[in-house]
Every structure is written in C-alpha cells, then in structure tokens.
Amino acid sequence: MNWSISFEPLVSWPLFGLVIVPLLMLALAGLWFRERGSVLRFTALLALGAALLNPVFLDEEREALKSVVAVIVDRSQSQDIGDRTKQTDEALAGLQDRLGRFKQFDVRVVDAGKSEAADERTETRLFGALESAFRDVPPSRIGGAVMITDGEVHDAAAGAPEFNAPLHALITGSEHEKDRRIRFENAPRFGLVGKPLDMSYRVISTEGQGSPVDVRVSVNGEQVSVEHATIGQPMKLEVTIPNAGRNIVQLSIDHEPGELTDANNRAIALVDGIRDHLRVLLVSGEPHAGERTWRNLLKSDASVDLVHFTILRPPEKQDGTPINELSLIAFPTRELFVEKIKDFDLIIFDRYQHRDVLPILYYDYISEYVEKGGALLIAAGPEYSGESSIARTPLMSALPAMPTGEVVDKAFYPRLTDLGQRHPVTRGLEGSASDPPHWSRWFRTIGVKNPEGEVVMKGADDRPLLVLDRKGEGRVGMLLSDQGWLWARGFEGGGPHVQLYRRIAHWLMKEPELEEERLTADGRGMVLEIRRQTMSDDPGPAQVITPSGKTMTVKLEKAEPGIFTGSLQTSEIGLYQVGNGDLTALAHVGPINAPEFSDVVSTEDRLKAPAEATGGSVRRLAPSSMLGNLAGGVALPSIVPVRSSGAASGNDWIGLRTTNDSTLKAVSRVPLFGGFLGLGLLLLAIGSMWYREGR
Question: What is 234-300 written as a DSSP string?
Fold first, then answer.
C-alpha cells in the first residue's frame, strides 16, 4: 500500500488567502501580546484553514513493471561455420531458461544478421535489430541486452548505445581460429576490350606473414594465369578483358588444412568490357539520299570512328575538269585496303560499282579480310545488277548472294521472315508486329539468286531483302535495296531505320547481345536468371552447377520468338556455371565479396568498446575460455538483477537492471475534514474559543 496526502481546497487559493491571512495576522498578534484566549483562537483558525484546504489521504494500489531485456541472436552466414550454430542454440536455450526464473524481466528474443535483400551487401547488423527491439520501450524500463554472436558485427558503434543499461556479448567460436582470405584492393568497374587492365589484390592470413601462395586467375571461367603472392602484401595484377559487356574476374587460393572456411578463398570482380573506338570505312559509289543516312547514323555514334570516301567521278571520264579540282583528298587505296585494312572493324560499300579506282587485286584482300574475322556490308543499289557489279570481282567469294541482273521497281512493305522474327537483328523491330507493318513502303528491290546465310527480311514478291551470313571467321551483310532513306525522311510515317541499321552494323562487328545463339545468366538477389537466345524452336533445359558442386536442371520457357528464359531460387552465394548445348555462362548470385565473409574469425574486439561503455562485458561461450555454469556444450554466466547504480558484470555473472516503474491500478480516498468528523473538530475549536472568551 502507498499512502500519501493531497489537498483539494473548497475555495480558490486567492479567496482562501483573502479570508485566512487577516485572521492569521490577528491570531499571531494575540499570541505575541499574550492576550487571553489567543491560543484557542489560533487553534480555531487552524481548524478553519484545514477545513477549507480539505486534506485527503490517498491509498494507491500499484503494479510493478518489468524491465525489458533484449536477446539479439546472430543468424548470419558466418555463424554457420564450425560449431557456432550449435553454440548459439545452446546459449539461447540456457539464457531463456535462466531469465525465465526472474519475474521482473520481460525477455525479447530477436534473430538478426540475415539479409533479406541479397542485392544489398550482406552485413551483420545487430545494433539495428537492438534499436528496433527497444523502439517502444521507455528508457527507464530498459534492463539491458545480451548478444549471441561471433563478434563480426558491421554496425558496431565506437561508443555506448543510446540507452542506460548494460550490454553483454557472448562470443561463439574459439580463441585460436585460423583462416586465410583473398580480396581485391583495386578492381576497376570498366575496361577496354583486348587491352590490359591494371588491378591489385591482397592475401591475408591470421598467422600474419607467411610463405608465398599461388593465386589462380580466371576470366569468365577460364584460367589465364597463376600468380605468386606474398601474404599480407598488396600485389599487382594485369588482366586482358576478352569480351564486351560483363566479364567475371576471379582470384582463388587453395584451402589450407585447419582453415575455418574456403568461402573467402575466392574473390570476384565484375568488369564491364567496353570496346575502344570502332573504325568503320564507308565507301560510296554514287551520291544519293541513302549515303547521307548511313553517314549520319555512323557519325552520331560516339564510339565509331568513321572514314568516308565517295567516288564522285570515274577516272576514265573525260570532261575537261582540271586535275586539281577532281577531289579534295586523294583516295588512299593502298593505305586503306592493303596496309591498314586489318584496323577496320567494318567496311561498307554503299551503291559501289567496280571502277579502276580499286585494282582488281584489292578485292582479294577484302575477301581475305572477311575470312580472317572482318565485317563487310553491301548496301546494294541498281549498280549491283549491272556490268560493273562488285559481284563480278574476286569479292564474289565473300558475298552471300549473286545478282540475277533484275531490278524490281515495285512498292512493297519490308517484312520479317520466319527467321527474322527470331533473329536478334530484326526481332521485335518497332512496327513489325502488325500486318502490314507499321512503317512506310519501299519501291526498289535488287534481285539475287540462291542466297546463303539467313534471309531475315523480304521485299517485293517475297524476294530477299536483308541477308546475313558468316564467311570463315568474319561476317557479311547484304541489304538489297537503296530505299532505306525513305524511313529516315519520314515518308508515310517513316520507320525504324536507326534501330535496323545500328543492329546490322553491330551484328557484323560481333556485338555479343546480337548473337543468334547466346546463353547468359545473372543473379537477381538470390535468384539465378537464365536467358537463352536461339534460332531453334526448343533449346532444351539448362544445366546448373552450384558453388558447392551440386548439379541442377532448369527448364527454359519461351518468352518471345527466339528467347527462352528460366530461373532458379538459390540459397548459396557464389559463382554458378550454366550450360545449354555447346554454350556455357557464368553468373554470380548474391553480394559480391560480401563483408560477411571478408573476415570470419570470431573476435571480441568489435563489441568490447560499446559493451564496456555501458558497464557490460564481452566473453566467450567456449567452456575453456571463461568461468561459468555449463549449459549444454557452452559456459554461460549467471544472471543477476542489479540496481541502476550497481556493477553490471563479474567474473562469472552478468547483471541486468531492474526498474522502479509501475502502473496505477486503483486509488482509495479518505478526507480528513470531510463529513461529521470535520464538522465536529471545527465546532469543538470554535466552542472552546467562545467558552474561553466568556469567562
């Protein structure tokens, strides 16, 4: 029971003072001058004042509140190493049992450390979980916190947490753990294709400096070198980026006996390969509107270096024009087609016909250039069907279709063939979904016979319009109309000329995204996504090899013509190998070089500062490393309730604070001057005063 006194005046305080103060002064004056009856008058005045103040005894019935204790359990992946999970579970069970004996504690158990968003960097964030556990608790009711962890906490503060209660840490693992790890010190995000890229890395060991260790360097799954690294020292590395787009550079070292884990014996760097400036040679045979379309497109691409020559006048033409006015720049045929032809990524002949400008032998050089990996595009016009056609030169061995000599002048809508609907150059071309296509007509087609390669677009009377072919290691494209400029000029609404022309050029230059047969994989969170680009109707399932070596099968479903996709929900972080037919791909699932595995050795250091700042402690759960009572296979300290001013830890015990907070359930009121009691006391005082005055 909690007794207290309270005043509930019957009149306002100003009125009370107005009545009592003059009477009090008269009573005090009587006492000072020792007048007869002054003591009784003073007593009657006190009784009157007490009656007006109305004192009340209060009896409060209160219920004590519990202190809130948070138990933060580290469930991060580093806790899966060795016996740490077992130690954690045994320690948690023991703590819950011991804390359950104390009725003054409200225990909140929070599992933390598991990252739900695997796109983020995986980190053990226990203090964020601790803050959430105490978010609705007043500071005076926080009894303390106990963390069960391996000590690898990435949001540990240097100072004390924002509450006035002890923080205790129970460390899993053992004191004498051994581990080696490798990490990138410098790994650029971008690199030029075919050019060396400077990187650096470091091998770190818990044993400090050691003997040299072999580091295997792999690029896109293929081992390219074995480096010799000195443990603890930064090492330089030079890697050549082979492909445009994403490239995976992996460093790995062998597992050493006694190591905690080999999960950090590998380091991954994702490098986006960027092609250096692409060199394109555009040779125009006759000025026309289509020439300007090709030139504008290539000049608008910042990654393209364009060399453009137009043959305005054949050498045999005699019209009296002075020699010095025939051209601004002499046509450097030998330099372009003999000495530096290998430097070009693409050669385009736009409505070009054979004249004496190029010696006949040079067409052999162009054919050889294609066979050895070069790219050639023929933008054909009526000249291709004439007597001076380049098809009548040694270049014919590189051409996918020979002319029939026919030029069809007839309006038509360019359409995709069945192959064209699946081919990456024309698949999904804007406006191709409707019939007729949602683009303008063309009015000329160059007739060819027996086209080789793939006909992906057709023109008038279903004649080949766009032919793509491979010759040796190179590629050849043939656009059998010179009417593409109508789309560029917006005739009848125009058409996707930029999209089409750019795809043709980039396919010829072997852009990976435009390969007909392509397998790619990527990690989205903890989901492995597989994308198969193919010209076949069914590529079959994909085979997946997980980082632990398990083999799985993923069914590929048709997403659109020429595209099949599949996905696999995974739980392992690391490098996955995906195969389908003769194609393979690599993908990294989960965070790259996650901090969770950057250092897996259990430690007391990270939590020592915040724990000591609150009066708490850090100790290991291993029985040989601390005093305490065994709970299963771990040594737990005893739990002791302590006051806010007392010590909160000892050799074999940890303290948790109790609170003085309580809730009010009921109040009993006993008025002192209420009812007949108050009236009787007042009358007695006044009567005594009257009696004394009457004598």
Answer: EEEEEEE--SSEEEEEEEE-PPPTT-S-STTSEEEEEEEEEPPPEEEEEEESS--HHHHHHHHHHHH
Place of tokens 């074999």: 652
Residue 328 tokens, joined: 């601004």
Give the span between the Cα atoms of 40 and 498, in whole angstroms.
Answer: 114
Question: Which run of H or E residues covers position 128?
Answer: helix 126-133
Beta strand 551-554 with 542-545 is antiparallel
Asked if residues 528 and 553 have their Cβ atoms less than 8 Å apart, the reply is no
Q: Give yes or no for residue 5 having a pLDDT over 70.
A: yes
- Which residues have CB under 8 Å from 152's CB, separation 6+? 76, 78, 124, 596, 599, 600, 601, 602, 603, 606
The pLDDT assigned to 41 comes to 65
Count of CB atoms within 10 A of residue 211's CB?
A: 6
Mean pLDDT on 355-379:
90
H or E stretch at 68: strand 67-74
Question: What is the full DSSP assignment across 356-398?
Answer: TTS-HHHHHHHHHHHHTT-EEEEE--GGGGSTT-GGGSGGGGG
How far apart CA 48 and CA 32 sit, in angstroms, is: 21
Quote the tokens at residue 563.
Answer: 């595209």
Residues 314-327: tens digit of each pLDDT: 555 555 555 555 55
Determine the 3-state secondary structure of 17 from DSSP. helix
Greatest pairwise CA separation for the chain in angstroms: 161
254, 265 Cβ separation under 8 angstroms: yes
Q: Whole-angstrom Cα distance, residue 454 to residue 507?
A: 13
- State whether residue 693 is helix, strand or coil: helix
Give the Cα separation of 677 and 291 in Å (integer): 117
The gap from C-alpha 315 to its chain's centroid, in whole angstroms, comes to 62
What's phi and psi for 588, nearest 5 deg? -100, 125
156 within 8 A of 183, measured Cβ to Cβ:
no
User: In degrees, to the nearest 5, what angle opens at C-alpha 681 toward C-alphas 677 and 684?
Assistant: 135
Neighbours of 598 (CB within 10 A): 16
Decide if 404 contacts 391 (C-beta within 8 A): no
The C-alpha atoms of residue 367 and residue 601 are separated, in whole angstroms, by 62
157/3 Cα distance (integer angstroms): 45
Q: Which residues contact 177 (CB under 8 A, 6 or more apart)?
A: 206, 260, 601, 602
What are the DSSP calls for 393-436, one per residue? SGGGGG-S-EEEEEEE---B--EE-HHHHHSTTTTT-TTTTSSS
Per-residue pLDDT reduced to its tens digit, 182-226: 889 999 999 988 889 999 999 988 877 667 899 999 998 888 999
| pTM, 2 dp | 0.69
Name the token pair of 158.
Answer: 């240097």
What is the C-alpha separation between 392 and 450, in angstroms, rounded?
16
What are the Cα distances from residue 264, in Å, to 155, 187, 524? 21, 17, 21
